[in-house]
Each structure stands twice: as C-alpha cells, then as structure tokens.
Amino acid sequence: MITREFSPGYVTTDVGRVHYVECGSGVPLVLLHQTPRCWDEFASVMPLLDGYRVITPDLLGFGASGPAPENTIEEAAASVTGLLDALGVGEFHLVGHHFGGLVAYHVAAVVPGRVRSLVLSSTPYVDADERRRRASAEPFNVVPPVDDGAHLAALWQRRTGFLAGASHRVLSRYVRDVLDHADADRGHAAVAAYRSEDRVGAYSGPVLCVASARDPRAFPARHRIAAAFPQAGQVVLENGDISSPETVPEEFAAAIRTFHAGAGA
Length: 265
Hints:
Blueprint: E1 7-13, E2 16-23, E3 27-32, E4 52-57, H1 73-86, E5 92-97, H2 99-110, E6 115-121, H3 128-135, H4 150-160, H5 168-179, H6 186-193, E7 207-212, H7 222-227, E8 233-237, H8 244-247, H9 249-263
Parallel strand pairs: 3-4, 3-5, 5-6, 6-7, 7-8
Antiparallel strand pairs: 1-2, 2-4
Helix pairs in contact: 1-2, 3-6, 4-5
C-alpha cells in the first residue's frame, strides 16, 4: 500500500468553517464524499493519485466542518468554492461520489471555467419524478436509539445489505459517521430538494460517469446522469458498491487516472 502524508486544515468561507485534508503536489484534484460520510471515505484513494494535489474537504455539515444552516446542495457547493478560493486554487479537477457527486455537478455548473474535468460517481439526477420518489422514501440512515444498543447492530446490518463483503473498517466508519449526526439523513433531504434539470448544459468540459455494479440504489439509474452530458464517457466498476472509494480504491483511482489521460487533462 502506498503511503503519503495527509495534511489537515481549516478555512472560513462565507457559508461556514470548512475542514479539509490534502496530500501530494501537482494539479489540484478535489474529492467530494457522500452523505453522511466525511473526507476519509477517500483515505485509501488519495495515496493512489500521484502527481496531483489532492484536496478532500468535509462538506459543510459533515465531519469536522461547521454546520449547514440552509442544508442545500447549493450551500455545500459554495463551501467547496469558498475553500478553493481561500487556498488560492484556480482551476481544478473535480470528483464526487453519491451526494458529493451532486455537489460536484453544481460546482461545475456555477464555475465551469475552473473545472478542468468532472467525474460523477453514482450521482443521482434529480428531476421532478425523482423529487417525488424521494419525498416518500423511507429514512436510510436513521435508526431510533434503544438502551441496549441494538440500534447499532441494526445500522450495521442495514449497511451490510449494500456492502456485501466489505471490511469491518468500512462498516465501522459508516456507523461512526451516522452516530456523529443529529439527523444523518439531512444530506438525503438536500438531494431530494435539488433541481438537476436547471443546470443541464452549464458544464461542457470532459465528464466521466462512474457506476458501481453492486450499488443497488444508484446502478439502475446510472443512465440518467449520463444523459445530462452528451460528451460523457462511462465506466462500470464491476466490484464497486455504495462505498466504492473505500471498497475498491485501486479501481476507483485507476478510473480517474485513465479518464484524465484519455481526455488530455
């Protein structure tokens, strides 16, 4: 396993205080995590991306970053651009997974000239039909606590259904991050309120849509986000699942590197 030193830091943006971790040097590459996770969803991917200055924030309201008062994708995106402004980053490559993919989608739409390339992993396309579906969906992360701690086992078992064969470390990180939130489904609420259709066509640069074959929530809808980008390439991680950056980090990093090489990025 390649090891590289991680350097943490904080910046204060117009929408809140953002914690981030970075490693390496070269062209900036920003990685955005899913909900309710934090930067270390990419801890195994970051050392595999040699030649980049990899910047991985805790999105607003997650990890060690400040709260997200508005709880919107737009606010999360503003925290990312605010962080990069504070770090003096101009152009950058951008990668987002699940919730982070939707934040990346919005960042690319509002500052397209700064985004050298865009990788959307298991990213939802949230139109009117999807908003209606999500409005009635059962909570995904929240399990009411009980005195004997049985809710911890319930969380573990629920995630196991989406992470067949995942290590105990991956599952433990998920349970940790769920327990760290007063409402671990806030991120899903922000997704459910977004309007992807309003930003179609705003970004025309290189795009790669990554799908994970063992992700039962995102994989069946993988063509919807790809349809929003006629220029997009597509790749399927056959052993990928809902947490591909952790469960198949080598394949995830390889998809990014291959895409950048092919796009001349």
